[in-house]
Amino acid sequence: MNKDLLQLIQDYATKEHSEISVNLIGKSKDSLVAMLLDLLTKYYNDLNSSTMRELVVAVVAGYEPSSEKLGYNGFRHNTLTGKTEQCEIKPRNFRTDSKAKKPKKLNGGGNFTDYTWARFQKHQQEKPNMLVAGFVNGRLIYIFGFSFNEQSFISRLQEQLEHHFSAGDSKGVYQRSAEFSFKHYKDVESLEIIYSVSKRELNEAKPYITGPVFKYLENNIE
User: Fold this and answer.
1) pLDDT (tens digit, 9 = 90+) per residue, 102-112?
2) What residues contact 87, with CB distance under 8 A and at least 6 apart?
3) Where along the chain do its domains lie?
4) Taking every pair of C-alpha atoms in the chain, what is the biggest distance, in angstroms?
5) Any idea which fold 68-220 has?
């Protein structure tokens, strides 16, 4: 993807619109046309509404976004170990204009769709880094990062798979949504806040975030 467009997508989720406008005014006509065409191509070829949020999270967290549909969301080269690290991104967006009677607040959660024991075992073996993100109206609020193989986290996934697949995987049968929330990884050793808005912006988003997630962020950001 066009690097200028990647930067614009990141800026849109993390900066004020006035600052973004100033940066765009400084771009050449050719650069703006290239960004627009790339953006339209991305949207028209992928109707998944979380695509842009996944891109934002990958870039902000320092990963190269991956275009593989069934692979991981991003990768990066670890200069200390010499190995390539993969990431699994789980973004959620709270819309303040939601028509739901009780919209689900950002709870540090996510889900694996169409999950199976085979995918679970693949994740255990390949050990991707989990990136769990929360947005409010498309504005990035936080990114939590932790290792997939943390016991309390994988136990949550295991119990759902065991309930759904009592006799193991069956061809064409999936766990439609293996869900988790902040409580399933809040005490793990590898947990880190990869990104957070300022305390002022966090307080503005407080009505849309569950108490435990808000308190953890409030206590751990400057």
Assistant:
1) 889 999 999 99
2) 58, 61, 63, 72, 73, 74, 75, 76, 128, 129, 130, 131
3) 68-220
4) 60
5) PvuII Endonuclease; Chain A (3.40.210)
